[in-house]
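Supplementary Note 3. Input sequence used for the single-chain structure prediction.
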Amino acid sequence: MPIKIPDQLPATDVLLHENIFVMHESRASTQEIRPLKVLILNLMPKKIETETQFLRLLSNSPLQVDVELLRIDNRPSRNTPEEHLDTFYRQFEMVKDRYFDGLIITGAPLGLVAFEDVVYWQHLESIIQWARDHVTSTLYVCWAVQAGLNILYGLPKLTRKEKLSGVYTHSLQKDFHPLIRGFDDSFLAPHSRYADFPVEYIRENTSLDILATSEDAGMYLATSPDKRHVFVTGHPEYDAFTLHGEYIRDLGEGLEPTIPVNYYQNDNPDNQPIASWRSHGHLLFSNWLNYCVYQQTPYDLEHFSEDKFTKDD
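The predicted structure, written as discrete structure tokens, is reproduced below.
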């Protein structure tokens, strides 16, 4: 089944070029099926690039997914045309009275910023709390994991001394969980963060099921027992050249970044990057849509009730 997106969204041309099955709203409106309604709260500066990356992964499913894009506030963007935001993005006030099957909260370049200094922190907290009563399953990515662990579990912000950047090997920690169905025992995934996620600390201070970890990167994938909160500390959505772009940007800003680990051929930034995580990324999002969203959500979202889920407080 295709992913359903607005007719004129820039990601359409990119996805069609990659032979990804997308369906325009005008065609999808004639089908008599119940699509999954997924909201993406895009916190990244380059919104078009980020939305394309997530839409690519959401499309790899037999389910029809009706995607809506959400912005955190109405501040002007330096990296995305205002016309694009006005056309394709919703304000939270426009959706807060509705229910959704899934919510994705992206990362944000706020690794060294204290929570209380994040300009939209209170608004983000309101959205995460709202989702507990209005969304079947929420997927938190990278910085959003830190935010979610703080808001839902009261965990403080933990920061690494040096930025974690590169493609790291991960190992499975739990057998037969549906979210990791089909995963190899070890797999690769990219990271780009200052946030620290120590495995034992999180295990001791939350009730999360920790599904995958890395010796270098710490916790990678975890979920609440009821699968309503899923945490991914890396960036399985990244394109082949995303880490390269960040590395070149940091070089240009005089930050003297380390070369992303296990990313370039022969670890030489003059060589082409190697995208070694695509299959894992597609499988992760397909499993999330199927087992955490589709298999859990009510057919009639207006009958959504937190009581149908096992609470994880």
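The chain has two domains: 3-161+173-239+278-308, 240-274. The mean pLDDT is 91.
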